[in-house]
Amino acid sequence: MSHNSFSRNTRLPAPCIVDVGIILNKQDMQKLLTDLSRVRYIHMQDGVLASEGEGYVTEVFADPQRATLIANHTLHLNVHSFDYLELNQSADQESYFDLIQDDCKLRLIPLSNPMQEQITRSLNAAALEAMVAEVLSASWDVQIDDEGTFSS
Description:
By secondary structure, this protein is of the alpha+beta class. The protein contains 3 helices and 8 strands, in the order αβαβββββββα.
C-alpha cells in the first residue's frame, strides 16, 4: 500500500473543542450560537469600538444571501456573515464568542446561563401541566354537578 492510498483512506477524527478553540464549520457555529439568549455584544471594526449593547438572540441561521442584523435589542445571527468563531473564556471562566470576518469582530458575552434557563423551563412546564390538570379536574367536577342536577 502506498502512502497516498493510505492517506486517502484514513480520516482524521472530528475535532473536540472544550471551552477554548476556533470553529470553522458553519453547522458547529450555528449549534453553539443557538444556545444563546441574552447577550452583551461588542462590535469592533479595524480594532476600534463601533458599537456595543445588550440584546436577545432571536434567531441563528445559515444563509449566504441574508445579513446578520442587530437592532432594537435583538440579534439575528447569520453564520455565513463570519469566517469563523473563536470560543474563549474570561478570567472568571465564563465563555464568550468572537465572530470574526476580516477586520470585523462581533463579541457575544452571554448574560444568561443555559443550565439555569433549562431548570426554569422545566419548572414552567411542570407548573403549566399542574394548572391544566387543575382546570380539567374543575371542568369535570362542573360536568358531574350539572349531570346530577338534571337527573333528579
